[in-house]
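Weekly structure sync, notes
Attendees: PL (lead), two postdocs, one rotation student
Agenda item 3: pending single-chain targets
PL asked that the sequence for the first pending target be pasted directly into the notes so everyone works from the same version. It is reproduced below exactly as submitted, 277 residues in total.
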Amino acid sequence: MAAPEPDPRPGPTSGPTSGPTSDSEPDTGPGPGPDTPPGTAPGPAPAARSGPGLGFGSGPGPGLGPGPGTDADSDTDADSDAPPGPEPLTVPSMSAGPDFGLRPWEMSDLPLVREAAQDPYIPLITTIPARYSDKAAEAFVRRQWDRAATGHGYPFAIVRSRDRRPVGAIGLWLRDLPQGRASIGYWMVPSGRGQGVTRAALRTVTHWALHDLRVPRLQLFIEPWNTASAHIAEDVGYRREGLLRGWQQVGDERRDMAVYGLLNSDRPADGRAVAED
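Predicted structure, written out during the meeting:
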């Protein structure tokens, strides 16, 4: 697992947010209700798999805040003149090879939340509840829907193809998109480990973000001891760029994180750009 960014929700939490760079958003205000289709935000959504990308150099796109020229003290009507905030996103379903797929979160995924809550590490670095209850698990799923609805990122459940069982989560988080970068976070429950699922999911989301969405830079944060996750990141093409000392609160202590980056312009050994078909 790669470590996520800190949970910005107010008040004490069970620890930093979920999975690798799982950029948790504030858990305040009403999110999509129980009848909201999983992964589908209300209102118009951008074309996720085609089109001009995320709006770099062409006006605001998903994750882009107000542009220049906004006068907070203007006498004009703020509601009519204010630039739009992040647009709602639609989480697509994608194949991650013959054995796994990615899809929006569903309320039927509560058993996955229960298994993740029993893991000694996942609740420390995610918003998975440390003490499972159906109410807390339902709130977690609605929080994933809300992240898409508010334009903050694409949360996916990772599903095994042969039995449609969810075994983990991965997210593409857009908080830093105005600076031309996004982060990816992921976690896997024990029943999904050792099957190549993490590598397949990371490769799929990475290619989608670079090729279809045209994100200039992706990054992961991984604890130095987590050599398995580091090897997966490097296999997919990420490069270790340095050590961030005391970067993140994990449980009761500040921990170091190694940062891994991948640029849209990076080229692997065969000379083809990473984002090319």
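Discussion points:
- The helical segments are 78-81, 110-117, 122-125, 134-149, 197-212, 227-236.
- The chain has a mean pLDDT of 75.
Action: rotation student to compare against the earlier draft before next sync.
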